[in-house]
Structure formats: structure tokens, C-alpha cells
Amino acid sequence: MELVVFSLLNGIVFGLLLFMMSAGLTLIFSMMGVLNFAHASFYMLGAYFAFQISQAVGFWPALVLAPLVVGVAGGLVERYGLRRVHKHGHVPELLFTFGLAFLIQEFVVLGWGRVGVPYRVPEILNFPLFTLFGTNFPAYRAFMVLISIGMFVALFAILTRTRVGLIVQASLTHPHIAATLGHNVPRVFMYVFAGGTALAGLAGVIGGNAFVTNPSMAALLGTIVFVVVIVGGLGSLTGAFIAAMVIGIVQTFSVALDVSVGSFFGLLGLDLSSNSIFYEYWTLTLTDIAPVTPYLLLVLILIFRPMGLMGKRET
Amino acid sequence: MLEIKDLHAYYGKSHILQGVDLRVGNGEIVSLLGRNGVGRSTTIKAIIGDVPPEGSIRFKGEEIVGLKAHEIAHLGIGYVPENRDIFPGLTVRQNLLLGMKGTKQQGRWTMDNMFEMFPLLAERADTEGGVISGGEQQMLTICRTLMGDPDLIMIDEPTEGLAPMLVEQVSELLAEIATRGVSVLLVEQKLTIALKISQRVYVMGHGRIVFEGTPEELRANDQIRKEWLEV
Ligand SMILES: Nc1ncnc2c1ncn2[C@@H]1O[C@H](COP(=O)(O)OP(=O)(O)O)[C@@H](O)[C@H]1O
Ligand SMILES: [Mg+2]
Prior knowledge:
- With 315 residues, chain A is mainly α.
- Chain A is 72% helix and 3% strand.
- In chain A, strands 1-2 form a two-stranded antiparallel ribbon.
- Chain B has 231 residues and is α/β, with parallel strands linked by helices.
- In chain B, a hairpin with a 2-residue loop joins strand 4 (53-59) and strand 5 (62-63).
- At the A-B interface, helix 6 and helix 7 of A face helix 2 and helix 3 of B.
């Protein structure tokens, strides 16, 4: 019971973080038509910038400043990089984002070294919020939930309730018509890219200290975020939300539940002794399988629903 | 208002417009006629900058070749795409709001004007554009462009596939647009409304203008009609 409650809570926290990443990625996909392989690198930049800024002036200014700096960096990358490469088609664009991911990786290693930095949860939030069945739930996790939900409410309100949001929606789905109506679509794209990377940066600010801040954090989370947007359906915010929550919760559960596949069959009354065939597989624990579950889901989705849960186009 | 000289346009390697000359005067309704595939849509896409043009296009005396579509729209050219290309996921009202270039509503047309002229659109103001009828979508695309208060409006096949009663409505709207001092460049395949409301007509064949004159002159010219218009 304790395990279920805490896995669920942690799963929601992780799922919200995944959504914060995939929301930006999927919006950027809608405009570029290709996946931005450097997206998780902006998550990493967010964490490192937050670490650096909070060393100097504390966590709270970092919470605001780091995503802004990441967003400005993203905007510049779009304006002076992607926009030029875009003219030459999708493949160069894809290669550009690959290169960018490596570049950011090297930048981080050069600046802060190969091992991680001690980016910590701020003291004021470093206490157990409540204790259930003898286990503590950290207040910082609740803070992450608050920030994420606040962010999504704001994003949703901007996209659906403001003129700017309408222009963004129109430019993403019908760029040619939006342009002939007098809207500066390239500029809209730059803001979308800046906004999406700022969201990734924010995820880094609140995720870097809850998990880890090191040069491999981008690659680690990046692949899962790709799975989320593909499973959710490329370009669909709702799909990304559902997929992020499902993958967040499933992943957390499978890490937490330390039961073997064999014991599951044992429950069903099957006796799998050490001499039965595929013995190695039966002794695999769910924890061993956890890292592959997102990819398993990806393969299943691609087989049974190639456009993703809520997607409109084939992936 | 609009003065086009030796306009060329390409899709990849295919040379679609091969030297088009065309003029639209102040407050004039001009029709660009021709069979499917001769390059009428390409002509107006080249004017608005949606297809890269070569040659000279002067609007209110200013050369606009090389400007971007949104810059051309801001100079006062409105474009109504073919196929009732609305934003299907947005409501009728949101579609109209997107026609405005800024947040201030001024100029010849207001949202209330549109709703007065088309009570059906008012009724469906909060309905998604994708689910209203074809006729309503056609009115919506025109009204959306009018919300940007253009001085010249270019409309691509607005009567295509519409019932006769709706065709009549479109024709009345175009006349109303012209009485407010807006020039109209109308692209059509059928002669029905074009000959009735235009001051001048052009006939296009294979990327070139093959006839220029008044509606009466075109009516009298059997040879041009047989060769370039009738199917
Ligand atoms: N996006 C496009 N790519 C390539 N060729 C096109 C494209 N759009 C139109 N064409 C070609 O250009 C020619 C002119 O098309 P268009 O201007 O749409 O004709 P019209 O509007 O007079 O029917 C046609 O032969 C058509 O096949
Ligand atoms: Mg056409």
C-alpha cells in the first residue's frame, strides 16, 4: 500500500516533468516538422544555469532567470541557426539539432566538468511534507507539482485565450494563410522555439536538483521525452500529457516494485523451477525491465497506432 | 492601385507564369478568368508573395517584389485563398479576429458589420470553423480577410461548388466591397458573376494573358471564349 501510494505520487511528479519537456518539443515539432534532438539539452542547460545562478544569488532568482536565459538562447538558435537551415529541408534540420545536442554537451563538460555538480534542493523546501506509513514525502516534490501545474494553466490560457495564442495556433497549423493575413510567421516560430526551450529549461531548474545534474542527464531524459511525444502523437499537447503521465507512472512503479516475473507466474499457480526453460527471464525483476518499458510502449504504439494516441499524422 | 509587368513564377523547375501583365485601378472590380491549371491561383499567390515572383509588381506605386507575404498584407493587399481555407479548429469569431493585423479595430469593417451582413455567421460565432457549412465557410474566408481592412482584395474562386442562391450572395458582397472603395481582383472559372460585376476582365491561358477587355467585348468575342474558356 505504502509502495503504491508513493509510486503513484512520484510517478505523477515525474510525469508532470516529462510533460513540461514534451509540451515544448511537440509544439516545436508542429512548426519544424522534425523532432528537435537538442530539446533535452536545453533541460540540461536549465539545470546548470540554475546551479550557477543559485550559487550567486540563491534559488528563487534562479527559478525565474535560468528558464529566461535558456529561452533567449533557444530563440537565438532558431533565429540564426535553424531558420537558415530550414530552407534546405528536413534532413539538414535534423542534423543541425543533432550537432547542437553535442555542442551543448561539450559546452557543459567544458564549463562544469565531466562529473555532476552539487545542485541541491533549496533549504527552505528541504523538509518532509508529510509522513505516510513511516515514509517521508519531500516538500520539494509537492513544489514541483505546483510549479508544473501553474505552468500548464498559464500555457493553456495563453494558447487559447489570447490573441498571441491564436496567432501561434494558426501559424503552426496553417503558416501560409497566417502569413497572407499579415502575421509574421517566422517571428512567431522564433517565439515558439524560445518558449518551448524555456519550458525545458524550467524543467531542468526544478528537476536537476530533485534528480541529478550531470552531463548525461540530457541523453537520459531525452530519449524518454521522444517516446512520450511519439506515443502521445506528434504535435498533440493532449496526447503528450496522457503519454507523459502514463510513462511517468509506469516507469516509477516498475522501478519501485521489486518483484520478479517468475513470482508473478507463481501467483498464477505456475511453478517455474530453476530447470524450466528461459529461467533467466523468469528471474528478471521489474526493476531490471523498468528502463525498457517506455520503449516497449513505443514499439507497441508504432505497431498498433502509428499516428500515436492523439496524433493527426503518421510518425 | 496594382500594376503588374512581365510577371514570372516557378514551381521548382516548371515555368508556370510566363510574363503576365495586369492592372487593377482604384475601386475597380477586375476578373481573371481561365480554365483549371492555367496559372490564375499562381498569379495571385505571386502577388501576395506566397510564391516567389519575378518581374515587377507595383502596389500604390511601390515595388513589392521581394517583400514577404506578411509585409505585403500590411501594405493593404488582402488575399482570400481557394478551397475555403479557414482555420478549422478555431471558432468563427477567432477566425475573424485573426484577420485583424493589430488589436485595434478600425477602418472600413468591424466584426459587428460582418455579423449584420451574415446573420448566419453571428449565430455560429462560437462554433468551430471546421463544422459550419461550405457556404458559411466561404463567407467566413472573405470576411476574415476584410477584417484586415485591405485596399485591394484578391479572391480565388469564391463561387466554386456553391448553390445558386449563395453565388448570388457572394456577388452582392463583392459589389458591397467595391462600393466601400476597395479594389477587387476576382479569380473565376465560370463567367456567371464575373461578367455581371466586373469593369474589366482578363482571360488567362497557359501562364499568359490571352485577352484583356470589358465584359461586353468578351461576350462578343466567340473565338476567345471557345478557345480559352468553354470546356
Ligand atoms: N504547389 C504546386 N507545386 C507544383 N505545381 C503546382 C503547384 N500548384 C500548382 N501547380 C501547377 O501550376 C499550374 C498552375 O496552377 P494554378 O495556378 O493553381 O492554376 P489555376 O488556379 O488557374 O487553376 C498547374 O499546372 C498546376 O499543376
Ligand atoms: Mg486555382
